[in-house]
Design brief:
Layout: E1 12-15, H1 27-35, E2 38-41, H2 44-53, E3 60-62, H3 68-80, E4 85-88, H4 101-109, E5 114-117, H5 122-130, E6 137-141, H6 147-157, E7 163-168, H7 173-184, E8 188-193, E9 201-206, H8 207-213, E10 221-225, H9 230-236, H10 241-250, H11 255-266, H12 270-278
Parallel strand pairs: 1-4, 1-5, 2-3, 2-4, 6-7
Antiparallel strand pairs: 7-10, 8-9, 8-10
Helix pairs in contact: 3-4, 6-7, 7-8, 10-11, 11-12
Bound molecules: S-adenosylmethionine.
S-adenosylmethionine (SAM) is lined by residues 19-20, 89, 91-93, 96-98, 121-123, 167-169, 192, 194-197, 220-222.
Protein backbone atom coordinates (compact mmCIF):
# COMPACT_ATOMS: atom_id res chain seq x y z
CA UNK A 1 0.00 0.00 0.00
CA UNK A 2 1.22 3.46 -0.80
CA UNK A 3 2.25 5.75 2.05
CA UNK A 4 0.92 8.81 0.27
CA UNK A 5 -2.75 9.64 0.69
CA UNK A 6 -4.81 10.03 -2.45
CA UNK A 7 -7.11 12.80 -1.25
CA UNK A 8 -7.59 15.88 -3.42
CA UNK A 9 -5.59 18.12 -1.14
CA UNK A 10 -1.89 17.26 -0.94
CA UNK A 11 -0.11 16.40 2.30
CA UNK A 12 3.00 17.99 3.72
CA UNK A 13 5.36 15.34 5.09
CA UNK A 14 7.88 16.61 7.64
CA UNK A 15 10.72 14.19 7.06
CA UNK A 16 13.64 13.76 9.46
CA UNK A 17 16.99 13.08 7.77
CA UNK A 18 20.36 11.93 9.22
CA UNK A 19 22.48 14.16 11.50
CA UNK A 20 25.72 12.56 10.32
CA UNK A 21 25.48 8.86 9.65
CA UNK A 22 23.60 8.43 6.38
CA UNK A 23 22.12 5.14 7.58
CA UNK A 24 20.01 7.02 10.13
CA UNK A 25 16.97 7.38 7.93
CA UNK A 26 13.84 5.29 8.32
CA UNK A 27 12.33 2.99 5.71
CA UNK A 28 9.21 5.13 5.86
CA UNK A 29 11.18 8.33 5.22
CA UNK A 30 12.78 6.75 2.15
CA UNK A 31 9.37 5.60 0.93
CA UNK A 32 7.88 9.06 1.33
CA UNK A 33 10.85 10.74 -0.41
CA UNK A 34 10.38 8.32 -3.30
CA UNK A 35 6.65 8.93 -3.59
CA UNK A 36 6.24 12.69 -3.18
CA UNK A 37 5.98 15.06 -6.14
CA UNK A 38 8.34 17.64 -4.68
CA UNK A 39 10.93 17.93 -1.89
CA UNK A 40 11.32 21.31 -0.18
CA UNK A 41 14.85 21.42 1.20
CA UNK A 42 16.81 23.88 3.35
CA UNK A 43 19.86 23.52 1.08
CA UNK A 44 19.07 21.70 -2.15
CA UNK A 45 22.75 20.81 -2.82
CA UNK A 46 23.01 19.21 0.61
CA UNK A 47 19.79 17.23 0.15
CA UNK A 48 20.82 16.19 -3.34
CA UNK A 49 23.77 14.31 -1.81
CA UNK A 50 21.39 12.37 0.43
CA UNK A 51 19.00 11.68 -2.45
CA UNK A 52 21.86 10.48 -4.64
CA UNK A 53 22.97 8.17 -1.84
CA UNK A 54 19.40 6.81 -1.64
CA UNK A 55 19.16 6.69 -5.46
CA UNK A 56 16.12 8.96 -5.45
CA UNK A 57 15.53 11.52 -8.15
CA UNK A 58 12.92 14.20 -7.36
CA UNK A 59 12.28 17.86 -8.10
CA UNK A 60 13.76 20.00 -5.30
CA UNK A 61 12.75 23.45 -4.13
CA UNK A 62 14.80 25.55 -1.74
CA UNK A 63 13.07 26.42 1.52
CA UNK A 64 15.25 28.23 4.02
CA UNK A 65 15.15 30.97 6.63
CA UNK A 66 15.65 33.76 4.09
CA UNK A 67 12.93 32.75 1.63
CA UNK A 68 10.48 31.15 4.07
CA UNK A 69 7.72 33.74 3.50
CA UNK A 70 7.63 33.55 -0.29
CA UNK A 71 8.25 29.81 -0.47
CA UNK A 72 5.58 29.05 2.15
CA UNK A 73 2.96 30.63 -0.12
CA UNK A 74 4.22 28.62 -3.11
CA UNK A 75 4.15 25.38 -1.11
CA UNK A 76 0.62 26.06 0.12
CA UNK A 77 -0.54 26.68 -3.44
CA UNK A 78 1.04 23.44 -4.65
CA UNK A 79 -0.46 21.48 -1.74
CA UNK A 80 -3.91 22.91 -2.48
CA UNK A 81 -3.51 21.69 -6.06
CA UNK A 82 -3.00 18.18 -4.75
CA UNK A 83 0.80 17.94 -4.79
CA UNK A 84 2.40 15.66 -2.21
CA UNK A 85 5.35 17.45 -0.68
CA UNK A 86 8.16 16.45 1.69
CA UNK A 87 9.94 19.05 3.79
CA UNK A 88 13.50 18.27 4.86
CA UNK A 89 16.25 20.30 6.50
CA UNK A 90 20.01 19.90 6.23
CA UNK A 91 20.11 17.57 9.21
CA UNK A 92 17.70 16.01 11.66
CA UNK A 93 14.14 17.07 12.26
CA UNK A 94 12.72 20.08 10.37
CA UNK A 95 11.29 22.73 12.66
CA UNK A 96 13.81 22.00 15.41
CA UNK A 97 16.15 25.00 15.04
CA UNK A 98 15.52 24.59 11.34
CA UNK A 99 12.87 25.95 8.94
CA UNK A 100 9.44 24.35 9.13
CA UNK A 101 7.37 26.24 11.69
CA UNK A 102 6.01 28.80 9.18
CA UNK A 103 4.70 26.38 6.58
CA UNK A 104 3.33 24.02 9.24
CA UNK A 105 1.33 26.86 10.83
CA UNK A 106 0.00 27.92 7.43
CA UNK A 107 -0.98 24.32 6.57
CA UNK A 108 -2.92 24.06 9.81
CA UNK A 109 -4.69 27.35 9.01
CA UNK A 110 -5.59 26.09 5.53
CA UNK A 111 -6.57 22.63 6.82
CA UNK A 112 -3.88 20.96 4.73
CA UNK A 113 -2.84 17.62 6.24
CA UNK A 114 0.63 17.45 7.79
CA UNK A 115 2.33 14.19 8.69
CA UNK A 116 5.57 13.83 10.66
CA UNK A 117 8.03 11.17 9.52
CA UNK A 118 10.14 10.68 12.66
CA UNK A 119 13.87 10.17 12.74
CA UNK A 120 17.14 11.71 13.91
CA UNK A 121 17.20 14.73 16.19
CA UNK A 122 20.48 15.82 17.80
CA UNK A 123 18.97 17.05 21.07
CA UNK A 124 17.09 13.86 21.90
CA UNK A 125 20.07 11.63 21.18
CA UNK A 126 22.42 13.86 23.16
CA UNK A 127 19.98 13.87 26.08
CA UNK A 128 19.43 10.13 26.26
CA UNK A 129 23.17 9.39 26.36
CA UNK A 130 24.04 12.28 28.67
CA UNK A 131 23.44 10.39 31.89
CA UNK A 132 21.63 13.47 33.24
CA UNK A 133 17.96 13.47 34.25
CA UNK A 134 15.74 12.78 31.24
CA UNK A 135 12.39 12.84 33.03
CA UNK A 136 11.94 16.57 32.60
CA UNK A 137 13.98 18.83 30.34
CA UNK A 138 13.97 22.24 28.72
CA UNK A 139 15.07 22.61 25.11
CA UNK A 140 16.51 26.06 24.53
CA UNK A 141 18.00 25.62 21.08
CA UNK A 142 20.51 28.36 20.21
CA UNK A 143 20.93 31.13 22.77
CA UNK A 144 20.07 34.61 21.45
CA UNK A 145 23.05 36.38 19.84
CA UNK A 146 22.08 39.78 21.20
CA UNK A 147 23.95 40.24 24.49
CA UNK A 148 20.99 41.58 26.48
CA UNK A 149 18.57 38.93 25.21
CA UNK A 150 21.14 36.23 25.84
CA UNK A 151 21.61 37.36 29.42
CA UNK A 152 17.86 37.49 29.97
CA UNK A 153 17.47 33.96 28.61
CA UNK A 154 20.21 32.65 30.90
CA UNK A 155 18.64 34.44 33.89
CA UNK A 156 15.32 32.85 32.97
CA UNK A 157 16.69 29.32 32.98
CA UNK A 158 19.31 29.41 35.70
CA UNK A 159 17.04 28.27 38.52
CA UNK A 160 15.25 25.54 36.65
CA UNK A 161 15.78 22.13 38.19
CA UNK A 162 15.14 20.52 34.79
CA UNK A 163 17.93 19.37 32.50
CA UNK A 164 18.61 22.03 29.86
CA UNK A 165 19.57 21.45 26.24
CA UNK A 166 21.43 23.94 24.08
CA UNK A 167 22.65 23.88 20.50
CA UNK A 168 25.81 25.76 19.63
CA UNK A 169 28.00 26.39 16.61
CA UNK A 170 31.58 25.12 17.08
CA UNK A 171 33.28 28.54 16.88
CA UNK A 172 31.00 29.96 19.56
CA UNK A 173 31.42 27.16 22.10
CA UNK A 174 33.99 28.92 24.30
CA UNK A 175 32.04 32.18 24.49
CA UNK A 176 28.84 30.35 25.31
CA UNK A 177 30.52 28.33 28.06
CA UNK A 178 31.88 31.55 29.56
CA UNK A 179 28.45 33.19 29.44
CA UNK A 180 26.94 30.12 31.08
CA UNK A 181 29.56 30.16 33.82
CA UNK A 182 28.91 33.82 34.56
CA UNK A 183 25.19 33.38 35.08
CA UNK A 184 24.41 29.80 36.05
CA UNK A 185 27.72 29.08 37.79
CA UNK A 186 30.10 26.17 37.46
CA UNK A 187 27.50 23.53 36.61
CA UNK A 188 28.01 20.03 35.24
CA UNK A 189 27.65 19.80 31.47
CA UNK A 190 27.70 16.93 29.03
CA UNK A 191 29.04 17.99 25.64
CA UNK A 192 27.68 15.59 23.05
CA UNK A 193 30.06 15.96 20.11
CA UNK A 194 29.74 14.72 16.53
CA UNK A 195 26.72 12.51 17.22
CA UNK A 196 26.39 9.48 14.92
CA UNK A 197 29.74 10.33 13.25
CA UNK A 198 33.18 8.70 13.48
CA UNK A 199 34.36 11.01 16.27
CA UNK A 200 31.18 10.81 18.37
CA UNK A 201 32.07 11.61 21.97
CA UNK A 202 30.47 12.61 25.29
CA UNK A 203 32.53 14.92 27.46
CA UNK A 204 31.18 15.00 30.99
CA UNK A 205 32.81 17.83 32.92
CA UNK A 206 32.03 21.01 34.81
CA UNK A 207 31.99 24.32 32.92
CA UNK A 208 35.46 25.42 34.12
CA UNK A 209 37.10 22.31 32.69
CA UNK A 210 35.17 22.64 29.43
CA UNK A 211 36.27 26.27 29.02
CA UNK A 212 39.89 25.07 29.26
CA UNK A 213 39.28 22.42 26.59
CA UNK A 214 36.99 24.42 24.31
CA UNK A 215 39.67 25.64 21.88
CA UNK A 216 40.75 22.08 21.01
CA UNK A 217 37.22 20.80 20.45
CA UNK A 218 36.07 20.54 16.87
CA UNK A 219 32.79 19.52 15.26
CA UNK A 220 29.12 19.87 16.15
CA UNK A 221 27.93 20.05 19.73
CA UNK A 222 24.88 19.71 21.88
CA UNK A 223 25.24 20.98 25.46
CA UNK A 224 23.27 19.10 28.08
CA UNK A 225 23.27 21.11 31.30
CA UNK A 226 22.43 19.76 34.71
CA UNK A 227 19.42 21.45 36.32
CA UNK A 228 19.77 23.50 39.53
CA UNK A 229 19.67 21.56 42.78
CA UNK A 230 16.24 22.26 44.28
CA UNK A 231 17.16 21.24 47.80
CA UNK A 232 20.27 23.41 47.66
CA UNK A 233 18.25 26.40 46.49
CA UNK A 234 15.73 26.01 49.33
CA UNK A 235 18.54 25.66 51.84
CA UNK A 236 20.00 28.98 50.73
CA UNK A 237 17.31 30.86 52.57
CA UNK A 238 18.53 29.39 55.84
CA UNK A 239 22.02 30.82 55.33
CA UNK A 240 23.38 34.09 56.73
CA UNK A 241 24.05 36.78 54.14
CA UNK A 242 27.78 36.02 54.25
CA UNK A 243 27.19 32.31 53.78
CA UNK A 244 24.78 33.02 50.96
CA UNK A 245 27.43 35.18 49.27
CA UNK A 246 30.11 32.52 49.77
CA UNK A 247 27.84 29.91 48.18
CA UNK A 248 27.74 31.81 44.88
CA UNK A 249 31.35 32.96 45.13
CA UNK A 250 32.42 29.30 45.17
CA UNK A 251 30.54 28.80 41.92
CA UNK A 252 32.80 31.43 40.37
CA UNK A 253 30.04 34.02 39.83
CA UNK A 254 31.10 37.69 39.84
CA UNK A 255 30.13 40.09 42.63
CA UNK A 256 27.47 42.00 40.70
CA UNK A 257 25.73 38.79 39.66
CA UNK A 258 25.95 37.37 43.19
CA UNK A 259 24.17 40.37 44.64
CA UNK A 260 21.51 40.17 41.98
CA UNK A 261 21.03 36.47 42.65
CA UNK A 262 20.85 36.87 46.44
CA UNK A 263 18.22 39.60 46.01
CA UNK A 264 16.24 37.27 43.78
CA UNK A 265 16.54 34.30 46.15
CA UNK A 266 15.42 36.43 49.09
CA UNK A 267 12.81 38.28 47.11
CA UNK A 268 14.15 41.71 48.08
CA UNK A 269 15.61 44.55 46.01
CA UNK A 270 19.23 44.52 44.83
CA UNK A 271 19.68 47.83 46.59
CA UNK A 272 18.69 46.34 49.92
CA UNK A 273 21.37 43.69 49.54
CA UNK A 274 23.95 46.30 48.43
CA UNK A 275 23.19 48.39 51.49
CA UNK A 276 23.67 45.40 53.77
CA UNK A 277 26.99 44.62 52.13
CA UNK A 278 28.24 48.19 52.42
CA UNK A 279 27.83 47.81 56.16
CA UNK A 280 29.52 44.41 56.23
CA UNK A 281 33.32 44.36 56.36
CA UNK A 282 33.58 40.71 55.35
CA UNK A 283 32.28 41.27 51.82
CA UNK A 284 34.16 43.84 49.80
N1 LIG B 1 17.15 20.07 13.10
C1 LIG B 1 18.35 19.60 13.75
C2 LIG B 1 17.97 18.51 14.76
O1 LIG B 1 16.93 17.87 14.60
O2 LIG B 1 18.74 18.27 15.69
C3 LIG B 1 19.14 20.73 14.37
C4 LIG B 1 19.62 21.74 13.38
S1 LIG B 1 20.51 23.07 14.06
C5 LIG B 1 20.58 24.18 12.73
C6 LIG B 1 22.15 22.50 14.07
C7 LIG B 1 22.69 22.26 15.47
O3 LIG B 1 22.26 20.96 15.90
C8 LIG B 1 24.21 22.21 15.55
O4 LIG B 1 24.75 23.50 15.73
C9 LIG B 1 24.44 21.34 16.76
O5 LIG B 1 24.27 22.07 17.95
C10 LIG B 1 23.29 20.34 16.63
N2 LIG B 1 23.72 19.13 15.86
C11 LIG B 1 23.30 18.76 14.64
N3 LIG B 1 23.90 17.61 14.27
C12 LIG B 1 24.72 17.27 15.29
C13 LIG B 1 25.61 16.18 15.53
N4 LIG B 1 25.80 15.24 14.61
N5 LIG B 1 26.27 16.14 16.69
C14 LIG B 1 26.11 17.09 17.62
N6 LIG B 1 25.29 18.14 17.46
C15 LIG B 1 24.60 18.23 16.31
Amino acid sequence: MKEINQKEMGTLYIVATPIGNLEDITLRAIKVLKEVDLIAAEDTRHTLKLLNHLEISKPLMSYHRHNEDVKTDILIKELKQGKQIALVSDAGTPGICDPGEEVIKKCIGEEIPIVPIPGACAMINALICSGLATKEFVFIGFLPLNKKNRKEKLEEIKNTTKTMILYEAPHKLETTLKDLKEIIGNRKIVLARELTKIHEEYIRENIDVLIEKAKELKGEFVLIIEGADKKEENDLLKLSLQEHYAYYEKKGINKKEIIKQIAKDRNVSKNEIYQKFINTDEIK
